[in-house]
Amino acid sequence: MILVTGSAGFIGANFVLDWLQIFDEPVVNVDKLTYAGNLRTLKSLQHNPLHIFVCADICDRAAMDELLAEYKPRAIIHLAAETHVDRSIHGPENFVLTNVVGTFTLLEAARSYWSRLNDAGKAEFRFLHVSTDEVFGSLSATDPQFSETTPYAPNSPYSATKAGSDHLVRAYHHTYGLPVLTTNCSNNYGPYQFPEKLIPLMIANALGGKPLPVYGDGQNVRDWLYVGDHCSAIREVLARGTPGETYNVGGWNEKKNLEVVHTLCDLLDQLRPKAGASYRDQISYVKDRPGHDRRYAIDARKLERELGWKPAETFETGLAKTVQWYLDNQEWSDEVASGDYRKWVETNYAQRA
Ligand code: NAD
Ligand code: DAU
């Protein structure tokens, strides 16, 4: 079986749902259920005997040791993290705890477990660490895309803690021989994304008749990848990646934020038209994010060359599917938008007036 951390979150849940559609290999799903973790997303797996959910904190060494001893996974797919850049600006501490100390704790538990496996088990075991393109810092409009050899230059507390975790993962391979794999991926979008991130936030605000808060001049660039494509990349790297290597994952979809918001508004105008008005009328420019990285762009050729992976969705097909999913599943967004979520929205956006 495999053990997946952070699998009640956006990418983790999509990964587990896809995995159990494709394979009949069991999954132990480990998540602390922070504000970002949501068991409603995993409702369809409630009675699936191949899915075991364990509520635990990756910073809890005893719990991690017990889980590994009990379930004896052949691989750990590590996604658990604090992930929202704006939250890391308001309160970096949890980011250091989960992303750095949590990854360290999990690595220590994995090293101890792995060192006691027989030779075949040792050779088969993988620790796959899911990271981000934000560790590479910010590009100018003319810089080449990030490659696997781009030096690290993280700019936010979030990306600095992800960079720290990447370095620890690398060191555990170099020093102890732990068979690790690291993926550095660009911005994901798709079903079940918490409505604090750009795309689901804009959809929720548009449908709720609220302003669509574009930071700064709206010209910051991100590369967008449909979440199902990220999940297929993780599966490929797990199956055939070389231990110790890192793989960039991207969608070849560089877009300015304003372009993304315009496209979303146009899709909503078609699918859920408002009488006599466009959703574009709700766009509102607000104060910029401190230290806002200007451009991210990913060169994903290594993954294509070595493992044959390519994204299946274009930005247009992926975004249309995503908007339709949010329209069909509005109760999911309503349910996750708890009191805590409303408090966050007030805190973050009050300061951007
Ligand atoms: P998310 O915020 O939606 O989910 C994170 C999950 O981790 C939640 O279910 C949360 O409960 C859990 N978690 C947090 N702290 C924990 C702890 N201490 N112990 C156990 N569980 C804990 O995040 P996501 O967007 O799904 O991102 C998943 C991973 O992918 C992260 O490592 C992130 O850095 C990386 N990543 C995300 C993106 C993106 O665009 N979302 C892009 C590249 C990489
Ligand atoms: O690049 C990968 C990263 O993508 C992941 O590692 C992170 O976990 C994930 O959160 C995401 O980080 P970003 O900061 O790029 O994502 P976010 O959705 O917060 O913002 C995307 C862009 O949109 C960014 O330039 C800021 C802007 N933005 C965001 C929000 C929430 C707005 O203009 N308005 C908003 O209200």
UniProtKB/TrEMBL annotation:
Its cofactor is NAD(+). Keywords: Lyase, NAD. It holds the Pfam family GDP_Man_Dehyd. GO terms for molecular function: dTDP-glucose 4,6-dehydratase activity. Residues 3-322 form the NAD(P)-binding domain. Its EC number is 4.2.1.46. InterPro entries: dTDP_Gluc_deHydtase, NAD(P)-bd_dom, NAD(P)-bd_dom_sf. The keyword Hydrolase does not apply. It catalyses: dTDP-alpha-D-glucose = dTDP-4-dehydro-6-deoxy-alpha-D-glucose + H2O. PANTHER family: DTDP-D-GLUCOSE 4,6-DEHYDRATASE-RELATED. Belongs to the NAD(P)-dependent epimerase/dehydratase family. dTDP-glucose dehydratase subfamily. This is dTDP-glucose 4,6-dehydratase. It comes from Paraburkholderia dipogonis.
